[in-house]
C-alpha cells in the first residue's frame, strides 16, 4: 500500500484522491493524481514457484509532482515465515538497497546455511498469517521513487492444497497494475485454479494457462477495471490474490527430487484409512470469553464434535479459576455422547479467572489414566487441543513453570495443539507449549470469523493417517539430513525431508519409510536417479536453479529454532560489554552503570570518519531497588559520506542530505557497510556492524525491548580509534594469573594486569551473541567491576556525548 504523510499527520491516499476527475475513460497521469499530486505509475507483483519454493517481487513506481516534499509510506504484507532478502528504493536514479534478513544471521542467504551454529533473527507477526514491512521516504517535489521488495517462502500443503497468497493492496489506482505467477512442479500439476478472492468486481480478468508441469497466471486490470465504480477515483484492488494448486502423486513412497547436490523428499499419501483419535478439548471459559468469543467457540465445537468418527474417544475440559470435566474418562464418539457434549458446551456461561496450568495437567491425567487402563487402541493418536484467549490469572502464573509442568507430565506420544483467540493472549507462550509437545499453534481473531477459523484448524489435525513415521537413507550417500522422524502424519498435509547427496559418487538415491497405519505397519521404498531432473530444470528458464538448496536451508533453520525454542535471549541488566581478546583468547566483561537518556560513545574514529553511539533507556520500574538499563537507540555517523543511521527498537532511519528514509524495525536487523555491497548504505572501506533487537513480552511488568551491537574483528579502523569499544580494536596486553576461590564458590577470582593496573576480576559465564545471534552461547568471561575501572581508559563518564552522531572530543 502507498500512503502519503504531510507530517506530523499521516493519511491513506486511497481516501485522498476522491475529488479527481470523474471521467473513467481518461487514464492520463493527471487522472491518477490526487490533491497531493502523487500517483502510482506501476504496481507489479512477479512470483515464480519452483517445487513449492516461491520467489516473489513487489515493485511500486511512484511520482511526486507536487512542488513540496511529502512523506510516502510503502507498506506491504508478506506471508509469515517468508524470508525477505532484499529491499530497494530508487530515488531519481539513486539506489538505496537494504538486505533485511530473518531467521539466520539476520536472514543470511540460504546458501550459507549449515546444519549447526546458525545465527538467526525472528520477524514478529502483526496478523494471522501475514506480517507487515513498511518503509517511509521523505520525497522532494518532482521526484520519482521506485520501491522494490523480494522475499522467498516455502508453500505448505494444507487440507490437500497448496495456496500461494499474494496480498494486493496498492492503496490507490495504478497506471499499470499486474500480477504474474509462474509455477514449475517437476512432479506434474494435478490442478491449478485462481479463487475469486478479490471479489466479483474482477471476475474474468485473470488468465490461466496450464501444462503438464508448468502453469502461468496473469492478472492485469486496466485503470477503469481497478475503479470501485465507473465514476470512482478509489481502487477496488484491496485483498489477497490467491493461486491454489496440487501436484500429481504416484502410489509410492513419496517423491524424491534431486538437483545440484541436494535432495528433497515429499511425502503426502492420501489413500489410507484414518487412525482412531483420543482427543481432549480444553476450553477457556473465563470472563474474558464472554460474548462473541464464546458464541463462536460454541458454534465451532458443535461442528467439530459432529465430525468425530465412531472409533474416536473424546472428552471436554472447561476451565476458569476452576477446572471441570464433562466426563471423568474418555468416552466413545457415539451419537448420544456427542449430543450430550453439545448440550454441555451450549450451557457454559463464561466468568472468573484463568487456570491454564491445572486444566492442562487434568487433561494429561485423563489421557494417562485411559492408557493405563488399556482403553486406548495401540494404533490410535492422542492429542490435546487448548483454546484460550488470555494469560493465566489463577493458580500457577509463571509461564515457564507451566511449560515445565506440561513437559514433565505429558506422555511422549501425546500432541498438544494451541489456539489463541484475540491479541490479549501471550501467543509466544502458546506456541512454545505446542512446539515442545509435538503440536502446532495458531492465533485466531476474536470476531465473527472465530468459528470458521477454529473449524479450519481442527480439520488440519482431524485425520491422522500415520504415526511414528521414519525416513531412512544410506549414510554413505547423504549428509546433513533434516528432521526425518515424525510423530504423526495428517491427511491433506505433507512431510518434507531434505539433505545433501553425494551426486558425484552415486547414481541413485534410495529411501525407506517405516510407519504405523490403521491396520498394519508400513515399509515403503523408493529409488531415484540423482540426475533425473537435470534435463527438465536446466531447460526451464523460469525455474530457480537453487531451489533444493534453499528448501534444505529453510527446513534446517526452522528445525534449529524448534529445537532451541525455550532458549530465547535473556535480558541483560545494564549495557553489558564483552571484549574478546584474540591474542590471549580471553573474554573480558564489564557493565556500565549509566542513567536513562544518557548517550555513550562506543566508537570514535575521526580519521576514518566513523562514530557509533548508544542511548541508554531504563526498565519500566525499579526491581530490588535497582533500575535496569539497556541500549534503546544506536546511532552511526559516517562523516566522509554524510550518512547517518539511527536504529531504535521500533525503526531504522537513514539520512543522506535531504533524504530521510524510515524503515519498520519489527525484526532483528543486520546493518552491513561493506565495499561493493549495498545494504542500507555503501562505504568505501570494508566495515560492518550487527545490531540485534531483543524483544520481551510486551506485558512484562519490568523489562523493555532493547538493542545489542556486535562488531566483527575484520573492521578496519584507524590507529586513533577510541570509545568504550573502539579503544580495544588495537588489542591491549593482558595477563591473568593467581586464580583463587572467590566469595562465591562457583565464581573464582584472579588478578589481571592491563594498562599498568592490577585488577581483581571474577570468573563467570555470559551470553555471547556474536557466535549465535539469536540464542547466544555461554562463554567464559572475566568480569571487571566498577564499570570497567582500570580496564577502560579513564572513567565511563568520559564517554558521555551530547548527540547520537557525536565524536569524542578528547579521546
Automatic annotation (TrEMBL):
Its main location: secreted. It is found in: Secreted. Residues 278-461 form the VWFA domain. Keywords: Glycoprotein, Protease inhibitor, Secreted, Serine protease inhibitor, Signal. GO terms for biological process: hyaluronan metabolic process. The keyword Glycoprotein applies. One of its GO terms (cellular component) is extracellular region. GO terms for molecular function: serine-type endopeptidase inhibitor activity. Residues 24-153 form the VIT domain. It holds the Pfam family ITI_HC_C. Belongs to the ITIH family. This is Inter-alpha-trypsin inhibitor heavy chain 2. It comes from Pelusios castaneus.
